[in-house]
Specification:
The complex is a heterotrimer. Chain B is mainly α. Chain B has helices at about 15-20, 25-60, 75-105, 115-135, 150-170, 180-205, 210-245, 255-265, 280-290, 295-310, 320-340, 345-350, 355-385, 390-420, 430-460, 465-470. Classes of the chains: A mainly alpha, B mainly alpha, C mainly alpha.
């Protein structure tokens, strides 16, 4: 233990072994994955996300959504994800192959979002969740993202987000909340998060 | 601690340093610019990280607190994590590594200002990085939060400092290589290799799909355990015998502890992916690695803790020993939790909950943070040639850090348990509020340390004490 | 905490007191670096000496490591899902293996690569085409399960005015497939049939060979001609 190069070589050997055994091995195993049809003649999944959703993913990251939300449905028996209705089947590696950055997440202060596009298939609902979470879910502790919305005169407002009567964020008289471009893109991204298709590795339950 | 105006002469035993002050003082003097720069930036980042953590914690139970951009919850957490790990812990670890490598090798730092350049570069980049994170330019990946352009520059700055550590080792004058030196060498090799490889595979040339998650998990575990953990163990192994004046128990087991720490730690990365969409074998490898990691934890603890216990209660009075005791205890607890949490039956309940946050806090702020604090409390007076100006601040730091971390870990774990039972988020608000209280204590502790360090830096620059001692 | 604690005086064994944070004066080191390395060097050499009563520790440790190694092996063999890339959930029911060899299986990966190389410059990787210039394939009414029509177009090309999804295009598509192997054409057409939300059955290389034989050497189709042979559904 008195030799500099011997210690460094030993340390380096440990690192390379685990890199080869874990990182390289999974890369070799998973590199060949491509969109696939679950049964003959079915559509190839996953599909490329629409352009607005790609922009929305940047908004998702920059707003720090991944700090509270994961994007992975764990199998039954390893958490109650499926029982809670966060997805119909567990997530598998193939679901992520077209994503340029994989945001599995490591903390859940809010629900999982891997399948949020099927759960909340409605722009208005998603906007309400973002603008005033407590109006969407009573007692929600989610932080609001009112800075992604702006007030415009009600007459000019398209896609206005309507709040319940007497809500703290209720717009000034004659005004209405409308989403900014960032909110529109973010909602498009959330809508694109869907895991409602069967995968060769994870069939949908009958 | 009460002030002792001057120690009785009888309490001044002769030691090598006093009979031959010239042998150690020049080494310390040559290290002063670099070590003090690193330590000062580290203490500063510790305060900023604690502030960010407190703000995020407050947001979790006070809706509307600092709402809106740029202080979003997710961004604050990214800032806290980056500044805690790359700011506070890495700076402190490098300061300790520089000092220990030169002291143990009995060589002076040849070019005193050279590592200062690396330290300045590292910390300026971090300052810009924190601003980038607040501006929403983060990557959203734990331990790789900073935009990818920062990675190569940070690694280069790290190497500017770390190469002097390696140089001190190769120029050393001593025959026996002490255990701390092994851990330091491992740490300075692990960081650049792992950080560059992972940056490349995740941010520059992204691997397809979940391989990214595997790389990120591998990276996080290496930086937390094999980089920061090694530096912390180096500090414990050096500070405990030096401050106690007693050799380490079971020292002959140290090589076994060192190599099993590396060999098992390096395989434990995927333990954080149990239940995730990565192949089951990769998850199981991580579980095995994390469980086996308890072997070196036990070996090292069986060496450190009995040494501390045999040192007796009088060790309580010294700041390095008090923090080293906390660090060694946190190491054992953290190791036990690391071995248990990844198992599938446990992970099914506790994964993604605040129990994992508590575990990380115990490891980073407890084990690594306290151990490196022990090192800094020991080395900074020697490098400046002055004692800590305010023992009251030392005591305050110790009390705040101990109470704060203990409370934080307990409340986070309690909240995590509540989360695993499927309770509504509202039910956790009281736990979050308690966590904020303890985070405030941690902030106070960090401020006390920074203040004391600044006082130490601006105190009269004479090296009078040593001069007096040698004249006597 | 009291610095004048009687316990903190000089120790009987002559070791210096520990007063590292004492104010005003810097105490000497309890253990000089020299003494530290010397002593530990001796400790490292003297490992056989059972003086501290720790002699049984290495034996115990060897047994512990062996036992843990055994456990690790057992755990891995039982929990690794056969080291398969397709096992994510150890409790999942086994997916029945498909029996019998198949002559040709359309490979979406090859199909995507070939499509991107041969077709995407006009039809775009997204299959959406370019508005007014190149007709879309994604959701196209021409992809309706009549594979023979698609194969004829790919093998012989098509030129002239045509309506796709209600828009008129005046295109000129060369005989891309003429230079490709049967299997390559089959991969491409299967991919087009199943990508971007299209959901039509795959094509085999045998079908491609059949159509190629049927049309022989010929020029591009006109939309009228091909619709006469294969009307849109």
């Amino acid at each position: 233990m008195n030799n500099l190069s011997l210690i460094l070589a030993g340390v380096f050997a440990c690192l390379s072994l685990s890199w080869g055994g874990v990182v390289l091995a999974t890369q070799v195993q998973l590199a060949g994955l491509a969109p696939a049809a679950a049964e003959d003649g079915g559509p190839l999944k996953p599909a490329l996300a629409p352009g607005l959703a790609v922009i929305g993913k940047d908004v998702y990251v920059s707003q720090g959504c991944q700090a509270c939300h994961t994007q992975q449905v764990r199998p039954a028996g390893q958490g109650a994800d499926i029982a809670r209705g966060w997805g119909k089947r567990p997530s598998v590696a193939r679901d992520y192959i077209l994503q340029d950055r994989v945001l599995l997440g490591d903390r859940r202060l809010g629900p999982d979002l891997a399948d949020v596009g099927t759960r909340l298939a409605d722009d208005a609902k998603l906007h309400l969740h973002l603008l005033a979470p407590d109006a969407a879910v009573a007692g929600s502790t989610k932080s609001g993202f009112a800075h992604l919305y702006q007030q415009v005169p009600a007459a000019r407002a398209r896609n206005a987000v309507s709040l319940p009567e007497g809500h703290a964020l209720a717009p000034a008289p004659g005004m209405a909340w409308v989403p900014t471009d960032r909110a529109v893109a973010l909602v498009a991204y959330l809508r694109s998060l869907r895991a409602d298709h069967a995968s060769p590795e994870a069939p949908l339950p009958e | 601690m009460s002030l002792a105006p001057s120690a009785p002469a009888a309490e001044r035993p002769s030691s090598l340093e006093e009979t031959q002050p010239g042998r150690v003082a020049p080494i310390d003097r040559s290290l002063a610019p670099a070590v003090l720069t690193l330590a000062a930036f580290g203490a500063l980042w510790a305060v900023v990280a604690a502030l960010a953590g407190l703000a995020a914690s407050l947001q979790s139970h006070l809706p509307g607190f600092l709402a809106g951009e740029p202080l979003l919850f997710g961004r604050l957490l990214a800032v806290e994590h980056t500044l805690l790990t790359f700011g506070w812990l890495t700076n402190a670890g490098l300061a300790f590594a520089l000092w220990a490598a030169h002291r143990l090798g009995k060589v002076e730092l040849r070019v005193s200002w050279a590592p200062v350049l690396g330290a300045l570069g590292w910390n300026l980049a971090l300052a810009f990085g924190a601003c980038a994170l607040l501006a929403g330019r983060g990557t959203g990946l734990a331990w790789l939060e900073l935009p990818r352009a920062f990675g190569p520059f940070l690694t280069a700055c790290f190497l500017v400092v770390a190469l002097w550590v390696a140089s001190a080792f190769s120029r050393r004058h001593t025959g026996h290589v002490f255990v701390s030196q092994w851990y330091i060498l491992a740490a300075i090799l692990v960081f650049p290799v792992v950080h560059l490889v992972s940056q490349a595979m995740v941010l520059w040339f992204p691997a397809a799909g979940v391989v990214q998650a595997v790389v990120a998990a591998w990276h996080a575990q290496h930086l937390a355990v094999l980089f920061l953990g090694s530096l912390a163990l180096a500090s414990l192994h050096l500070v405990i015998p030096k401050a106690l004046g007693a050799p380490l128990r079971s020292y002959y087991l140290a090589p076994v502890g060192f190599w099993t720490f590396l060999a098992f730690g390096t395989w434990s990365g995927t333990a954080s992916l149990v239940g995730s969409p990565v192949p089951a074998w990769a998850q199981s490898v991580g579980v095995v690695g994390a469980a086996l990691l308890f072997v070196p934890v036990l070996i090292v603890s069986l060496s450190l803790l009995p040494t501390l216990v045999a040192g007796g209660p009088s060790g309580k009075g010294s700041a390095p020993l008090r923090f080293a005791t906390l660090g060694a205890l946190a190491f054992l607890l953290w190791g036990a939790a690391s071995a248990v949490l990844p198992f599938r039956s446990v992970s099914a309940l506790l994964r993604f909950t605040d129990v994992e946050v508590a575990h990380a806090a115990l490891g980073l702020q407890g084990f690594v943070g306290f151990s490196l604090l022990a090192g800094l409390y020991y080395l900074l007076p020697r490098v400046t040639g002055r004692a800590w100006p305010s023992p009251a601040l030392v005591a305050a730091h110790h009390a705040c850090a101990l109470l704060g971390l203990l409370g934080l870990v307990v409340t986070l774990a309690g909240h995590g348990w509540l989360q695993s039972s499927g309770a509504s988020p509202e039910a956790g608000l009281a736990w979050n509020a308690a966590a904020s209280l303890f985070r405030f204590l941690l902030l106070l502790g960090a401020v006390a340390f920074l203040l004391n360090l600044l006082l130490l830096l601006v105190a009269r620059p004479a090296r009078r004490d040593l001069a007096q001692a040698s004249a006597r | 905490m009291n610095d004048r604690n009687p316990e903190r005086g000089p120790r009987r064994d002559g070791r210096p007191p520990r007063r590292d944070d004492a104010p005003g004066s810097l105490p000497p080191e309890a253990f000089s670096d020299h003494k530290l390395t010397e002593l530990h060097s001796r400790l490292a050499r003297d490992k056989e000496e059972p003086s501290e009563g720790f002699s049984s520790t290495p034996v115990f440790l060897v047994f512990l490591l062996c036992a843990l190694g055994f456990w690790a092996g057992v755990y891995l063999t039982r929990n690794a899902g056969g080291f398969s890339a397709k096992t994510f959930d150890l409790n999942a029911p086994k997916v029945a293996a498909t029996a019998g060899p198949k002559a040709f299986v359309a490979d979406p990966k090859k199909g995507m690569e070939l499509f991107n190389a041969q077709c995407a410059s006009c039809h775009q990787p997204t299959g959406l085409g370019l508005a007014g210039v190149f007709p879309p394939l994604a959701g196209s009414d021409w992809i309706d399960g009549d594979n023979e029509r698609t194969l004829k177009i790919v093998l012989a090309g098509i030129a002239g005015e045509m309506k796709v999804k209600g828009n008129t295009y005046n295109g000129n598509m060369p005989a891309i497939g003429a230079a490709l192997k049967d299997a390559q054409v089959a991969h491409i057409v299967s991919y087009v049939n199943q990508a971007w939300g299209n959901a039509q059955p795959a094509v085999t290389d045998a079908q491609v060979a059949e159509v190629r034989k049927k049309i022989g050497a010929r020029g591009q189709y006109s939309p009228k001609e091909i619709l006469a042979e294969h009307p849109l559904k």
